[in-house]
Amino acid sequence: MTSTTTSSMKMKILCLTLCSLVLFCSAFTSDDYADALEKSILFFEGQRSGRLPSNQRATWRGDSGLSDGSSEHVDLVGGYYDAGDNVKFGLPMAFTTTLLAWSVIEFGSSMHSQLEHAKSAIKWSTDYLLKAATATPDTLYVQVADPNKDHQCWERPEDMDTPRNVYKVSAQNPGSDVAAETAAALAAASIVFKDSDPSYSSKLLHTAMKVFDFADKHRGAYSDSLNSVVCPFYCSYSGYNDELLWGAAWIHTASGDSSYLNYIQSNGHVLGADDDDYFFSWDNKRAATKILLSKNFLEKNTEGFQAYKAHSDNYICSLIPGTPSFQAQYTPGGLLYKGSSSNLQYVTASTFLLLTYANYLSTNGGGGAATCGSSNVRVEDIVKQAKKQVDYILGDNPAKMSYMVGFGDKYPQHIHHRGSSVPSIHAHPDRIACNDGFQYLKSSSPNPNVHVGAIVGGPDSGDSFSDDRNSYQQSEPATYINAPFVGALAFFLRNPTTQ
Predict the structure, then answer these.
(1) Between these two residues, 486 and 268, which has the higher pLDDT value?
(2) CA dist list (Å): 196 to 27, 170, 192, 200, 384
(3) How many other β-carbons are positioned within 10 Å of the β-carbon of residue 94?
(4) With 90 as the cut, is the pLDDT of residue 243 above it?
(5) CA 139 – CA 169 distance, rounded (Å)
(6) Is residue 476 among the annotated active site residues?
(7) Amino acid 301: pLDDT
(8) Which of 117, 311, 414, 416 is catalytic?
């Protein structure tokens, strides 16, 4: 072999190495993020309950739940199924709505052609939540269907014949957690529609205030009132104090009403504002509330709100390896790991908070950094950590698998989802009964209906993933996994090369 040939081979190897480094740093382009954003929003159409509109894009779905609420002589048609079942759970649905709205508030300007689809996804939920909040005085309807009965069947929603019982909270049986989250959802959504539909926005905000007053006046956890049908599915493990603070923060953000600011300042210590929490989910809103409230300090230097900036810094620092406050766990492949069941819900929620806080620090006089003890974490490093999580979900991971259905060349084929796994009513018009559907749960064949945009529970602590319908902890999608990811994708659509 000549020296010229050897030099040429070395040059090729160097070029390949440099190319691989570039690909590792920028795994996805703006077109990729745009594609993922579109699909992440499209997912919600596959979760719709009620009478589907003429512009429905998830065409494998049909009308369902058209008599919901009739047993109580109220109209509870619409809303979303939370995950792979056919139950409408009010607490995660309201949380999903809040996070979709927050995504639009922070990053809607980057959504371009997808902004109207995102607003439609929000409105599909808020239309339902308005009905649930106003059907009966001093009552909030918080759930449709008995999950214990629903889980005994494997039925597509168009066929379901399990009991569609409705459940509510009231003065006698309070549910401050679900009510205050509903208030947060309506208030956040009122900001989204303020310019495009001021009348609807006003209705959302007015209802949010009424529901929050109900939540605050009649305090109690909905798990106590409705234990047998909300536990263990969506028990309020964190209590309701975090939702009261969260709800008040969103109504203040939407209305500018100083009474809600006074409420936060007067009740914050009692409601847990002094405590640091290191995760964010449909159940625990403390970290997110502090980040939302930190904007008051960063923007306006509001007296008494500096502590929220400090708490927000602590939360952010806990997620960044190398800081004195670091305490998160990551898989060998770099994925944030919080729990074995539906771990990606924590990943998408935390990623959204990282990017939202980075946005606040960049634009509102935050000095461009979070304070971590004696050191600082720059905005660029916060964004870099968030990008690792987004890209991991989209396929830049040890398995080279996208955990978003329909994105990329390799993604889960056997998701734990009734409607996706059972032949659609268009392909199989005859009814498929409760027990007859289990053949599809047990089948080794890919799901016949590709639930585009669905983000599944994700891999385990060792980056291993079981593409198996029976492994619901890993293979089940949920609305509250997707909702914060919508905002994260919009951020990187605007900043695709951010490292």
Answers:
(1) 486
(2) 36, 33, 8, 9, 34
(3) 34
(4) yes
(5) 6
(6) yes
(7) 74
(8) 416
